[in-house]
Every structure is written in C-alpha cells, then in structure tokens.
Specification:
Four copies of one chain form a homotetramer. With about 190 residues, chain A is an alpha/beta fold. Chain A has five helices and five strands; from the N terminus they run βαβαβαβαβα. The radius of gyration of chain A is 16 Å and the shape is globular.
C-alpha cells in the first residue's frame, strides 16, 4: 500500500472561524489512512520582501519552510477575494517558492491539491485558477480534478463547524482518494 | 484644462532597490501637469484578516485607506512573482477594497492605471492580467492600454536608478497622457 | 440626450435555442431608447487563418466586419465552454480584430459590454474574464460592471424563451443603462 | 522501457507556413524513441454548435475524434492571438471534449503537453495558461513544465523551416523526455 504520506495544509484565510478553516479541518478529519494532513500556519509570515532574504532569514519563513520541506505533498485551501487569489495565500506561496538559507525552495517538487469555499456561488473557481497558474510555473504536479468548489458555504457546515453536506463530503473524499494516487505517481522519486 | 488630479501610487515590490520602485519614481517624475502622483506605502499593512476588521482597525490600514480616499485615481506598479500577482500587492488591494470604520472602500470608483517591470521577458503581462481581474470585479474603470510591460529591466535604467530607455519612456508618457483623459472621463462625478 | 447608439451584438453560442441567444434577445428587447442593439451573426465565419487574409477576403469576414464598423459599440454575449471562452466566439474576435481589405480592424476603439449565461452556477465568470483579456489587449474600453452572470439559466426564462427572472432583468437593465453612459464617455471622438 | 506511445499533435495555427507548424514539425522530428507524434488536423472542423451533435455527426468531428481516441496522449501546439487562446484551437478542444455518436469524449483521460511560439516576446504564455484552464476543467493531467515559450520565432528557425536555435532545441528535448515519463505515470491504466 502507498504511503502514508504527510501533507502540509495551507489555509488562505486567516480568520479564526473561516469557512476555509472548517473545510481544511474536514479534510484533516476525513483523510484516508494513506494521508496524514497537518496545517502549516502562514499568518505570521512577513509580507514578501527580497530585502529580508538574508541571514538571518525571518524565523516564520524558516519555520514554515522547514514544515513544508518535511512534507510529501501540499494541500492548499483557499478562499476567493475580489475574484482572485487571497493576498495572504499568495504571500505564503511567494515565500515558499524561494530557496532559503536552510535549503531549496520548500515547494520544490511537491504534489499539490486544491480545495476552497465561498459564501456565494463561485466556490473559488477563479482563485484556484490563479493558484494553479503560480504552481504550474514552478513545474509542480497539481491534481487536475475533481474540482472541490464549495459554494454557499453557510449551508454546508453544522453549528459545530463540521462539514455535513453530503455532496461536498463525497467530492472531498474523492479528491483525497485521488490525491493519494497522485502523490504516489508524481512525487519526487515516485 | 483637466485636473490636476491626485494619483495614489501603489508599488507591489517592497524591496528598496526594486525595478518597480524605480519605474514608479519615473512615473512620478514624468507626470504631466494634470497629474500629481505620490506613493501610498503598503509595506506596513498586516496580512489581510477579517478578524482585524473591528475597532480599532489597524493603523496602517486606516492610514493607507485615508490616502487612497483622498486621491482621484490610482496607479498600480507591479512586479510579477510566480507568473502572477505579488502577494503583498494583492494583500493591499484586498484591504483597500473593504469599507473601514472610517468610511467606504478606499478603492471605490477610482480610475486605475497599471504598469510593471520584470528582469525577464514577460514584463508583468500575467501579473497585470490578474490585477485587472480583481479590479474589474470591483467595477473599477481600469485604463485599457497601452500596455506598459517593462522587460529586461536591468537594461532600462541607469546607475542612478533613472529610467533611460527611450521606448519605455515613450510608452510611459503615452500611458500617463491617456490616464489624464481616462480620469477626466471615468472618475466619480466625471 | 446621448445617442441613440447602434450596438452590434455577438452571440458566442451558435445553437438556435441557446440560453445566450435568449439572453441576447432580452437585451435587444429591453434596450433603453439610447441604444439600438442588433445581432451581427458569426456562424458563417471560417476558422481564422492568416492565409485567407488576402483578396478576396472571405465574404463572411467582410460582411461581419462592415456591420461592426458601422456600429458605435459591441455587446458580447457568451456561454462558457470548458471553463473558458467558446471557440466560435474567440474565432470571431480574432477575425474582427484584424484590419481587412475593406478598412481598419472592425473592433477598433469600440466600447464593449459583456453578458453571459450558463446552465450551472458559474454564470460565465471565467469565459468573460478571458474575453476581457483579449479585448484589453486591443486597448478597448470594456464596461467594468455590473457582472451579468446568469446562473442556472433554465430557471430564468419562460417557455417562450423570454427572460422573466426579476433579479436578472434588473441586472441586465442596470448594465444597459450604464452602457449608454460608458459609450458616451469612451467612444472614439467621445 | 516505456512506450512507444502515440501522441496526437494539434496545431492551433491553420496558416501553412506558421511558426507553430514548424515547431510541431520539430517536435515530430525530435521525438524520442518512446514517442510517435503525428498531427491530427483541425482545420476542417465546423464551428462548434450543439445543433450539429446528432446523427450524422459532422465527418470532420468523427475523424478527428477517432484519431484522438486512438492516441495515448496529446501535444497541443499553440500560437497566441490577442493575448489569449486562438479561436480555431479552442474550437477543436470544444469539439474534442464532447462525447460523440462514436464513443466517449476523445480527450478523456489523455495526458497533454503544451508548446507554442510567437513572433514577439510573450512566447504564448497567456495562450497556454488559457488552454491549461480548459484542460484542467476536464481533469486532464497536463505536463506542468518546462515551459516551452518560443519567443521571437523568426530568429529560431532556418530558411528550410527547421528549428535551429540551441536553447529552444534543448527545452523542447527536455519537454519531450519528461512527457514520456508523464504519460507513463498518468495515462489511463498507467
């Protein structure tokens, strides 16, 4: 059997009670046996600035980078702000695509999967497309589908924050299952 | 005669010696009489987080917002990171598209123009396209052209950081001239 | 009073009973007094091929080009195929952005507005974004908003094909009203 | 050893002497032993129209579909028109993503690689991004990199139309080598 693979989850919303945090937690909770998903927080990263790329590198960049490097794959959980990628998420990807004093670019070669939620009807289709454009340019293997575009998020979770919508659960499970196979095939050395 | 209009310039690169900062400075220096361009710094903004949207709002958000609101128009100067919009720039746009405790969304109704520079051949075509997608969704009138895509930036400036490339100067001047007319036609109350 | 302005409508779906054709017909029917909207058919255009750009140009290209040139503005009505711009629509835009033996590029300088409908939830957000990217590169002034993204099209029209959904009618009317003002401000010579 | 795999090449330019046709021919000529690349012409396809999706289907659609279905993978060779995907190429992808009277959607499950050439500096970066968006939505595994963006095409080929630029040859060879491995890992049943 494949794995288990460690997956670093990056949540593009910094709000404590965000729908995307709840969606990330659902992915963590429902991960199949072959995946161990854990969050790598990005809220303490400074705004990307090449002038900070010198010893000592910012602690938060080194910490997030080390956590990413140690993972086999990455799960990006993204909201959509202004029909596009959230600033804090892009900021994290900009840092994590740079080699640091501690080693090569943390994202290097990592298989990636994307999921996201919006209060409205778009379900992060446009934000995910922009994240894909950035990751493609890094030559990363991003799981092509299924699209997990969680629409009308307020109707998909219960009061405790648990994902309860049947259709969404099914899509999420399908994505996670395919992600195992995708990591197996496309990881470095795979 | 139209104007003079005040233009808030936002530079997407935080690096002190960035090509985009030099490009912004060239725009400031060459502004026609009808435009007064001044930078609104974005490097002190926190990462966007809805949990911070309560009294007291972060000082840096209120300060940048006030400067934007006071301007007639906005000039976005953007590098391109990972074939897409820079995180710090998107972070600023995400904040500045939200109404604050001090008033309506600072970007509201502002005519916008875009310029950008890269060390390589792309000249920020893809970053500008993503910025346009965000601004369009805010229903803002963004100057359609000309494209100011400054390629191979290291060859366009002199040692003092001044823009010296003839073709680039000409394109920049053309954009600034058209921007005057664009602001005149498309500003709120215009 | 402004206008009346003539508007060439291009429908990206060639299917006779398409939702987008019905949407275009609704725009034609509800046009304010300052707009006269009429379709310019694109179904007879050959596939774009530079080898055909010589005398005699294809009749269908010359005919569509003449109709566009005679119009003050353009309304693009687009479905979304494969999360992106429909081939037949892009084919028409590729032809109509070229100067022909009969004169300058037919799209030159035309103010444009976009609307679109899908059976599902996306409402052509991604197709419209791609159309905008093409038109921006032509330096055309495209109405920034409101977004007319008609979702779940089957629920918005009656059996006769008339648009009956209140919210959609309201958005369409708002767009058409703003388009009058947009044409007034941004047309060549305006 | 893997393969040999058959690869259907689709050229987005219909012009006989196009740079992209020459680039496609270079790929055919330099294909490693594990790849057999052959063109599937798209110039005879009608404009996409759902009303034509009934018996008898257009001959050209059935012919292109059969050729695609018989291939293990697809190589898309694209120019860039108006900063975006060419109409004729998108038209082909729209047809080939539909199931026909002769069987499932011809593109189904095919690994894809992209290359492209422009006379100017963009090298089809924006056209390829749009093609990727369409193929991603079909859940197809598209080779993430390297980017083969052939810029200033007139300087890369000799008078006979052969690709002679060393850097471009190297990038093309790298892409073709990686494509073999990509097909091996990501084809249906792979």
């Amino acid at each position: 059997m494949a794995g288990p693979y460690t997956v670093a989850a990056i949540c593009g919303s910094l709000r404590r009670d965000s729908w995307n945090r709840k969606l990330m937690n659902a992915a963590i909770a429902r991960a199949p046996a072959a995946l161990a998903i854990a969050e790598v927080p990005i809220g303490d990263l400074p705004l990307f600035n090449e002038d900070l790329e010198r010893d000592p590198w910012p602690d938060a960049v080194l910490a997030a980078g080390a956590a990413l490097r140690a993972a086999d794959a990455v799960l990006v959980v993204t909201p959509e702000y202004n029909a596009s990628v959230p600033g804090p998420l892009k900021n994290a990807l900009d840092w994590l695509s740079r080699k640091t004093s501690a080693g090569p670019a943390p994202m290097n070669g990592k298989p990636v999967a994307l999921i996201g939620a919006t209060p409205g009807l778009m379900g992060t289709a446009r934000a995910q497309a922009q994240v894909r454009q950035a990751l493609q340019n890094l030559s990363l293997p991003v799981l092509p589908g299924p699209n997990v575009f969680v629409t009308q998020a307020a109707t998909r979770f219960d009061d405790s924050g648990a994902l309860t919508d049947e259709m969404t659960l099914k899509m999420l499970d399908t994505l996670l299952e395919r992600f195992v196979n995708w990591i197996e095939r496309n990881r470095v050395g795979g």
